[in-house]
Specification:
single chain; 194 residues; alpha/beta; Rossmann fold; 35% helix; 18% strand; globular; binds adenosine-5'-triphosphate; binds nicotinate mononucleotide; nucleotide-binding
Length: 194
């Protein structure tokens, strides 16, 4: 059975930080594929300057077009908002459970607040977590340290964020090297974040 790592995010827009992590996971862990799950509404985020789902999807689609092991997923587009990961996992399991074994990909920053996620214990009971390093404040909860379901993956640290890209692009700064070329073109042609 193929092992799929799920990388959840708003991807507003997807940038090379996301791409480097996902590519590292498929090349250097036992994951066969990584799916970018585009979240309509993350539980802890506001909708400020959030592009429509289909634009964020289009950018992910174009970013991974030439990476056969990386795929966009729109599974959350038809689910209730805000989108809780535990509920999405149930849907994915119902739809693809016979074909794929799913795991979660997250940064160390998100692991530090993982105890605040809806039913995080249920998630850990059924799924593995692949955690990559990320510079961030705070500590990893002791219940997650050395947990049998949590695997650390030494991916490179790339301190880029979509917020930075949106803000600086809006100010007229050149952010082109931080984005996959097709994403940059789409964003520029569509006049996003201006
Ligand atoms: N440079 C990066 N390196 C590693 N992980 C990242 C990086 N940027 C974002 N992530 C993580 O990737 C996931 C999806 O990213 P998302 O689009 O939600 O975040 P973001 O780029 O930080 O966006 P924003 O700045 O709009 O909040 C999140 O779990 C986020 O923590
Ligand atoms: O399920 C939850 O309770 C939950 C709480 C916070 C975040 N998430 C998921 O984690 C993803 C990354 O979160 P964020 O806020 O760091 O962009 C986001 O797209 C959601 O799918 C999920």
């Amino acid at each position: 059975m193929k092992k799929v790592g799920l990388f959840f995010g708003t991807f507003n827009p997807i940038h090379i930080g996301h791409l480097v992590i996902a590519n590292h996971m498929v090349e250097f862990s036992d994951l066969d594929e990584v799916w970018f799950v585009i979240t309509p509404q993350s539980p802890f985020k506001t909708k400020q300057s959030l592009l429509d789902n289909h634009h964020r999807h289009q950018m992910v689609y174009e970013a991974v077009e030439e990476y056969p092991k990386l795929k966009p997923s729109t599974i959350e587009f038809d689910l209730p908002q805000p989108n809780y990961t535990v509920d999405t996992l149930t849907h994915l399991h119902e739809q693809y459970g016979e074909q794929y074994q799913f795991a979660l990909i997250m940064g160390e920053d998100n692991l530090k607040s993982f105890h605040k996620w809806k039913n995080y214990n249920t998630i850990l009971e059924h799924y593995s977590l692949y955690v990559y390093p990320r510079i961030s404040e705070g500590n990893i909860d002791h219940e997650f340290k050395g947990h049998s379901k949590i695997t650390k993956v030494d991916a490179p640290i790339m301190e880029i964020s979509s917020t930075f890209i949106r803000k600086q692009h809006n100010k007229g700064k050149n952010v082109r090297p931080m984005l996959p070329e097709a994403v940059w073109k789409y964003m520029d042609e569509m006049n996003f974040y201006r």
